[in-house]
Design a protein that fits this description.
The complex is a heterodimer of chains A (255) and B (862).
Chain A (H helix, E strand, L loop, with lengths): L3 E7 L1 E7 L3 H10 L10 E5 L13 H4 L12 E4 L3 H4 L5 E7 L5 E4 L1 E3 L11 E7 L4 E4 L3 H8 L11 E6 L18 H13 L6 E4 L11 E8 L4 E5 L3 H7 L1 H7 L3
Chain B lengths: L39 H24 L5 H42 L7 H36 L1 H42 L6 H9 L1 H34 L12 H42 L8 H29 L8 H30 L2 H29 L4 H12 L1 H15 L1 H17 L6 H16 L2 H23 L4 H53 L11 E6 L2 E5 L15 E6 L5 E6 L2 E10 L1 H9 L5 H7 L6 H7 L7 H42 L12 H72 L9 H37 L1 H14 L5
Antiparallel strand pairs in B: 1-2, 2-3, 3-5, 4-5
The chains are: A alpha+beta (255), B mainly alpha (862).
Chain lengths: 255, 862
Amino acid sequence: MDLHLYLMCFRHEALVASHLTPDQFGAYMAMGTRHNTGGKVMFFEIEKNFESSGLAIDRLDTICAPHSDGRPHRSKYLSVYRAMELVPLSAFGNLYLTTRDGRVLGLEGSDYPCDRDTSRGPYMYCELCPITPRVVSNLPPAEFIKRITDPNSLVNVPKIFIADTLLTRDADGQLASYLPYRDPKHIKDCLDVIASKVDTIGKTVDRDPPLVAFYRTLASGFYVGNQEGIKHYRYPSAEELDSEHMEWWRSATMD
Amino acid sequence: MFPLAASNGLLFHWNTAWLAAAGDPTGSIAGDDRELPIWWHITWITAIIALASAFGFYRWIMQQSEGNERMREIAQYVREGAYAYLSRQYKVVGIFFIVVSALLALMAFGLEVQHRLVPFAFLTGGFFSGLAGFFGMKTATNASARTAQGASESLDRGLKIAFRAGAVMGLAVVGLAMLDISMWFIYLYKFHHLVFGGQPMSLETITVVMLCFGMGASSQALFARVGGGIYTKAADVGADLVGKVEAGIPEDDPRNPATIADNVGDNVGDVAGMGADLYESYAGSILATMALGVAAVSLGGTPAGFAGKLDAQLAFLGAPMVLAGVGIVLSLAGIFLVTAKEGASMKQLMFALNKGIWGSSAMVIIAAFFVMPMLLPSSIAWGVVAAVTTGLIVGLIIGYGTEYYTSAEYKPTKNLADQAVSGTGPLIIDGVATGLMSCWIPIVAVSVGMMVSFVMCNGFENLVMGLYGVGMASVGMLSTLGITLATDAYGPIADNAGGNAEMAGLPKHVRERTDALDSLGNTTAAIGKGFAIGSAALTSLALLAAYIEEVRVGIHREVASVYVVEGDQEFQTVNLGYGKYGIFYPGEDSDGSLHDDHFTISAIAGVGDNSLDIVVDGKPVSVIVNHFGANIENELHSGRRSDEISKLLATKRPAGLKDFTSYYDITLMNPKVLVGVFFGVLMVFVFAAMTMKAVGRAAMAMVMEVRRQFKEIPGIMEGTATPDYARCVAISTTGAQREMVRPSLLAVLVPIIVGLLLGVAGVMGLLVGGLCSGYAMAVFMSNSGGAWDNAKKYIETGQHGGKGSDAHKSSVIGDTVGDPFKDTTGPSLNILIKLMSMVSIVFAGLIVKFAPMIGAFLGMGQ
């Protein structure tokens, strides 16, 4: 029975040990055993051999042993507070996206050079962990992460997990009609604000965005990083998802 | 003034040959061997053509591949569920039919207030109506997987299979209806008197007896529509609320326990229910128009160009049957026009379907130009042709009007979708407003169509002929039912094919094609629904007039049940009270008995150019002849009776519709009429409320069951355990059966109760109130529901944030509200309108006899 280590970092963070495979773990987290829990879950699979202080990684086998009757241990929480900052970037494995009915899509991560792109935005980032506002910014993902994790800044976080979301606009400059954002006019106003303030890191659109139809709004994908580096998890195009991950995509576009 | 003849009390006449025409109090036509009109052969031949073609299409469908094992398995689940439902429904309906038949038998044999064949006519109407729905559903459940398999090959192949399956339904409905009408006609016209003895039946009696099978068809249709509607929405809401909203499972996902029930619901509601519904509409419009045709000659006199009254009546009676028969053949031609090349685009497929509908409509108009002048005198034939054309045009206008207000291609639904951005409240408000506003097209179209048909048939000079024109317009509208129903029934088949493709995990391009077929079906279904709803309104006017004809027969039957001629009296007059009189002549029956029912004249109190003065019980009374027994009428007009009274009677035409409205005081100043109108309106609202509440209750049971299964059956969500589909099917079935009884009973009982309390005037008010409010309400509910549904689909195409957005969530709520509007209550109201008319017609004899007594007892006049 393999033991896995998962870092959940969608809105709240938790490091969890489990005997379930990523697919099983995602379904379990999304639906629970009696379907009393629900909601989307995003989690990384974490390499178990990283060094940590205070996370009891070295005692995983003892803490998360199978039940006496041989049943797997579904979840053993190791940390529910500031877990992400304690896990080194090098230990981040695949990112798994689950839907409310427990379908799981795995995304492979890759190192993302900090100077990879310098194109100016605007971008709209959905910050997922440890803070959760939605912001618009002229900065490309790498630059945005560098700025927000810069310890020299007055306001910073040690590590951040963000999603790059769609900002498609039609010929009139309005957001495309298929984008499910609440109050698109306000987003447009925010974009107008950053257009005139090129040096600003960004502008908050919503402090607590509802993230409706979230999986339909993703652009280039997810980024997790700090001053040391960035990992990028490319999100497939809608065509790819429809043809190669049809069941997940149908479920993901439900809400 | 006739000399006084003392009334000697009431002697009940009991004819031992109870099914014999001699027992027919409305009289018979002399001569045992009546020639069968040649046009009758058109009716049975076209019926056989329709049924044979339907069978041919069915066999062709069954020869197609049903796809892989998973597809067959899913189709089997749906089939089993649908059969389980129908089996339960037929049991409940069977009990209802047994009880009502017993009641009708009591009325016929015990109270003698209606013809003794009515219980049998009622049963055959119900049987054939149910059979039409069953055939349609059997084909549809066999066609869904085959359509999905066809769509995996090409779009046009999928269309061909689904459309031909719809055509089976369309052709089965028109074929069975025409066969039923044709067989009843030949039996009553040619053989009934030979089998049971006595004189041949008069055409008046034949048409009113046949009209009674409409009640059987209406009852079956109401059960099918209400039960099917409750079933499908309970399953749909259960599948959506728990499966989609709570568990986050996509539509048609096999993990959803209610998904099979949902697919079954499409079949029992949209296919079987619709089949029974349109069978009733089709048969009802033909039968009502036949009755009016006969009445038009009876009341308006024999038009020039006919050898006699019988010839004229046969021609007017035959015209709707012939037109419907020709329509069957031309619908079949239209079905064959629906062809598309391999790899056809959506636009080409739409063109192909329109080619079929428009093509058959145009051909019917052209055919009417040739056929009607052959049957009818030119003075009326061209008016009838105009009425038929009007009916078809009105049907198309209503259809396209419906499409305008419900399709996302047009402004109203786009605007409705815009409201979803503001929230659920504005969306609901706008949906209600859109539905209300959408009523103007069908109401104006039907009103104009009614007036045009009426005027074209000289209705302002000859009222009954004008009404006959309106009836012919409704027959014209439904003459292409074979193809319009095919386009309507094809929709749910394509929808089910999509479900099958989804559950079987077929590739994306297959699902895209089945979605395209479904979307195509939604558009054509709007046209089919337009025809159904428009014909309901037009037929109802004809049924109102037919009701008065039944009242006439009811009065005559009451009079005939009392026979008073004794000794050597030349004639006798009897006062039955409440302004009803009998004038009896001693007759010479074939068996040598002293008297015969056919030597009876019934009359009602009245003053007019056709009234005559008689003395009854020593008092002078002015009366108008209600009805001559056919034999005495022949005697009078043949000149064989040369006495003064006979000569006088021969000059008097029977009471027309206006005489009856005067006799029963059917005016807006009569509170009974107005109260009846209020009750008609109330009936529509209460019925609508009951059916919608029924959906709510049945859906709640389904919600609980789906939740229970998710909770208690481990592995459903993981896909490692199969849900208990059968249990959900059973719950929906039980819920629908339980819930359909009360609204259906209401529809049957209220016209009888109102009739007994408020009399004929109250019934007329009830029917008018029910017709006007029911028609508007049906259009409103169907179109609101359709607009909400399509607004949701429009948003799902990516407008206003697309799926999952707040606007989408609002639109989903709108759609949930609209579901019972458009699939349960709206369509059921069509049948309610007609069922109330049919019940009134069948129970007219009872009302005529007992309502005056009850009214007098309650101090409300007669």
